[in-house]
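Re: iron/sulfur cluster structure - here you go.
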Amino acid sequence: METKTFKTTTLSRLGYGCMRFPKIPNTENSIDVDKSKALIKLAYEQGVNYFDTAYTYHNSESEKFLASALASYPRESYYLATKLPVWVTKNLEDCKTVFETQLKNLNTDYIDFYLLHALDKDKFKFVKDNGVYDYLLEQKKNGRIKNLGFSFHDNYTVLEEIVNTYEFDFAQIQFNFVDYLFQNAKKEYEILTNKNIPIMVMEPIRGGALANSELSKDSKYNLVNLAFRFVASFDNVQVILSGMSNEEQVKENLNSFSNLTPLSEEERNTLNLVRDKFLKSKVISCTSCNYCQPCTKEIVIPKLFSLYNELLLSSNKKAFLDSYPTFAKTGKDCIDCLKCVNHCPQKLKINKLLKEIDSSYTYLRGAETP
Ligand code: SF4
Ligand code: SF4
């Protein structure tokens, strides 16, 4: 297992994401304890020492399960990461209650890596308005939190606000070979690196979507292996999380992380081709039938979808950036009335797609600005 130094500790490059354990058949979230314990044991014994759970994972079963799975190992031999979901709280007192519950769930008196979970603009506002950061800092001073961080899902301008407001020991972002070039990941990486904030990576293969059978079928390479090595090649990436659900995945990942050699040119080219194929598969299947027109807010939906599809197919960012502002109304004007959705024969989630396009525009515009 390859490792990397974090302050005075040595972390495995592979972290066990504890949100996709095998489940008991016909249950929504109940963890199959025996099967899952065997996976944790295999990973731990082969050098994985970073375990990333959350209060909400597996219907709030994940933390307790993880504690039981690691109970026979010395506490100092592994590192626990868990997260505070401010959206289940109403105020600071609720946050305190959640934190105390998490210590009990994990059967520990300290948490190695504690994250504000899935920060976005609204959740960060809650954190600021309710003094949550100061409370967590106090817990850090008391030794109950060793490292304080956050996971993140929003536009990079929000990320800038977060890291310019408070100090953090680490951050967790979605980062992979598709998001690096097409979504916010490159910019987010740069913002965090400029602030000297080490990065824990989530969704290195987007829950398997970047290495599915369709994308893999013509490749002589193991795409999962290439995807991990792509992410691992960035200096400021510390731990790469993978939510492993079966023995085959654990063994395959252990194998990848035993030798994270840099990608060859041919391997990089392969990832570029896979990325293009993946993006093309994301093309919006709008037929320009116009049944969704007129939109309540006068958004010219089919033309926007057509413009976005051109971007996916040609990667011509300039054409997209030049044309998008010429639309008087876009996704940011959508009020989610769903009138269009109810009329679309392709059953497209039009309101959501419009907002995704708007986010892409905001990101690409920012990324193109020197
Ligand atoms: S959901 Fe949005 S895009 Fe659709 S009709 Fe309403 S305002 Fe227009
Ligand atoms: S109804 Fe659906 S398929 Fe037709 S133009 Fe509108 S979004 Fe496209």
